Amino acid sequence: MIALTVRLPQHKNILPFYSAKRPGMIRADKISLDTIGKKVENGERLNLDEGVFLYRDDVPLNEVAELANKVRERKNGNYAYFNINTHLNPTNVCVYRCNFCAFRADLRDPRGYLMSDEQILARGQEAVDNGCTEMHIVGGLHHQKKFDWYVNVVKILHDTFPMLHLKAWTAVEINWFEFLTKKSVREILEILRDAGLGSMPGGGAEIFHREVRDQICEHKADTGKWHEIHRTAHELGIKTNATMLYGHIENAYHRVDHLIRLRETQDVSGGFQTFIPLAFHPDNTELAELRKLKKPSVMMDLRTMAVSRLMLDNFPHIKAYWIMLGIGTAQTALSYGADDIDGTVRHELIYHDAGATTPEVMSVEDIQRLIVEAGREPVERDTVYNRVIRDPQNQSEWTTGEPVEVG
Ligand code: V47
Ligand code: SF4
């Protein structure tokens, strides 16, 4: 292939952009922040080339943010959502070896653990006592645990604490259950739903493009499977989230490709609620060691937030997960496309094992203060975006209110 070098006039809104190896290329001189801005204004969908363009260092971040903020306010007004939640990782023992993961342990590793039913129920009790509306449950794929064990985790929690919404098991785990049981995705999800599963988190997405996926987690659920599982969940009325792990070996093309694949699945099945961009945390990971990688910069975090908001025109919410971003960046992200900050979060391990220095839990007062300081109106939501109404006499008592209004 012959590489073309074309010089275009240097103007802040007209930048040369050639990705000759990639499909879907359109003429670079047709892309500018002005043309993208007009499309955003008219609610038109941005394409792959435009998404990649927005990632260029010489496209001013503040102008990308302005566009993303427009979409954010169109969809969610001035609201910034949070919830009161806790995490449960019932085991860190995992058959897989994703090279970005500092959380997993081998079967005989002294770091490995497996929680008993009593420990799991104690976590449920602690959650309810602290007014949590949600428990986020993910873990390793334990070599010796059958599907029934995973169903039981959901069942005992749901039977004992029926008010606690269980957002449990990623598509990677569902795919593992398929392997264990030889049942279909639909059957597996029906069994879990009947046991008390309320919704699914967005993990396991990483980067969908094979060029990257094959290098960071080639063994686990492939891209087609991840999407099939989420589509099937949506068909069953189970809401799900989606993530993207960025800031490692991928480039802008892989990121935008990832976002477009999510947008296409959402067009078909419509059950994604929230997109969460996840910044790679390098500590204690094989990937960082092999490639000498560092954490992505704050600018990269904010640009990814803004580009995600602009590309995912059919996702109602974009989350700035404060545990992963840090409190300051999460607060700033509320003006870069994000409308949700996740929750109080108790017992987070995946990011803390990989070097996160954020606190283990944040109080409701602190969350509300950081949202107000960012010029937004805090709204406590449940997992499926209904308002939560608290008893003023007893903050751990709550009822479900109206769905939040989404534009
Ligand atoms: O799939 C693992 C990521 C994910 C590292 O749905 C890492 O509301 C960065 O999906 N550096 C699990 N990321 C977490 C997850 C999640 C988190 C918060 C909210 C929701 C939601 C979902 O964590 C994994 C992987 O992509 N991960 N190791 C690491 N070293
Ligand atoms: Fe296992 Fe999940 Fe870690 Fe991969 S990311 S090694 S599947 S725990």
Automatic annotation (TrEMBL):
Cofactors: [4Fe-4S] cluster
Keywords: 4Fe-4S, Iron, Iron-sulfur, Menaquinone biosynthesis, Metal-binding, S-adenosyl-L-methionine, Transferase
Residues annotated as binding [4Fe-4S] cluster: 94, 98, 101
Co-factor binding comment: Binds 1 [4Fe-4S] cluster. The cluster is coordinated with 3 cysteines and an exchangeable S-adenosyl-L-methionine.
Reactions the enzyme catalyzes: 3-[(1-carboxyvinyl)-oxy]benzoate + S-adenosyl-L-methionine + H2O = 6-amino-6-deoxyfutalosine + hydrogencarbonate + L-methionine + H(+)
Highest rank taxon of the organism: Bacteria
Signal sequence residues: none
GO process annotations (BP): menaquinone biosynthetic process
Annotated function: Radical SAM enzyme that catalyzes the addition of the adenosyl radical to the double bond of 3-[(1-carboxyvinyl)oxy]benzoate, leading to aminodeoxyfutalosine (AFL), a key intermediate in the formation of menaquinone (MK, vitamin K2) from chorismate.
HAMAP family named among the record's database cross-references: MqnE
Annotated protein name in UniProt: Aminodeoxyfutalosine synthase
Biological source species: Bremerella alba
High-level lineage: Bacteria, Pseudomonadati, Planctomycetota, Planctomycetia, Pirellulales
Gene name of this polypeptide: mqnE
